[in-house]
C-alpha cells in the first residue's frame, strides 16, 4: 500500500513539473493564465451561479489542456526530427489550431456568461440607462 501512495505522489510531482514547464516556456500559457485570473475575479465580483462557475472552470481547463497537449506535440515532433519536414509542420500547426479553437470557444463562453451581468453591473454603477 505504501508503494502505491508513493507512486501516486510521484505522478502528481511529474504532472506539476509538466505544468511548470509549460508556464516557463510557453508565452501563450501566461496569456491564458492572466485572462483566466481576470475571468475568475470578474466572476467573483458578479457573483455568478454555481452552474456558470462549472462552465467557466471546464472551459478554462479545456484551454489549458489544449495548450499542454500542443506543447507535448511540439516536444515530440522536435525530438523526432530536427529538419523541416512537412508532416512535422502539420503536427505543430494542428496542435496550435486546437489551442486557437479552445481559446475562441472560451472567449465566446466568457462573453455569453459574463457579458450580460457585467453590462448590468456597469450600468447600475454609473447610473446608465440600458
Quaternary arrangement of the chains shown? single chain
Low-confidence stretches: none
Portion of residues within helices: over 70%
What's the rounded overall pLDDT mean?
Answer: 94
Report on the architecture of this protein:
This protein has helices spanning 2-25, 27-46, 50-80, 86-125. The mean pLDDT is 94. Helix 2 (27-46) packs antiparallel against helix 3 (50-80) and helix 2 (27-46) packs parallel to helix 4 (86-125). It is 88% helix and 0% strand. The longest helix is centred in the last third of the chain and has 40 residues, at 86-125. It has 130 residues and is an all-alpha fold. The protein has a single domain, classed as Helix Hairpins (Orthogonal Bundle).
Please outline the helices and strands.
Elements: H1 2-25, H2 27-46, H3 50-80, H4 86-125
Helix pairs in contact: 2-3, 2-4, 3-4
Amino acid at each position: 500500500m505504501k508503494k502505491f501512495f508513493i507512486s501516486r505522489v510521484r505522478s502528481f510531482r511529474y504532472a506539476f513539473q509538466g505544468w511548470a514547464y509549460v508556464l516557463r516556456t510557453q508565452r501563450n500559457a501566461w496569456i491564458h493564465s492572466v485572462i483566466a485570473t481576470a475571468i475568475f475575479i470578474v466572476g467573483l465580483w458578479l457573483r455568478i451561479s454555481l452552474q456558470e462557475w462549472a462552465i467557466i472552470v471546464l472551459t478554462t481547463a479545456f484551454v489549458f489542456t489544449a495548450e499542454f497537449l500542443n506543447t507535448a506535440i511540439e516536444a515530440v515532433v522536435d525530438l523526432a526530427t530536427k529538419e523541416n519536414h512537412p508532416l512535422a509542420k502539420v503536427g505543430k500547426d494542428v496542435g496550435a489550431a486546437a489551442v486557437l479553437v479552445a481559446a475562441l470557444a472560451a472567449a465566446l463562453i466568457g462573453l455569453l456568461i459574463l457579458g450580460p451581468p457585467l453590462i448590468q453591473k456597469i450600468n447600475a454603477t454609473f447610473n446608465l440607462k440600458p
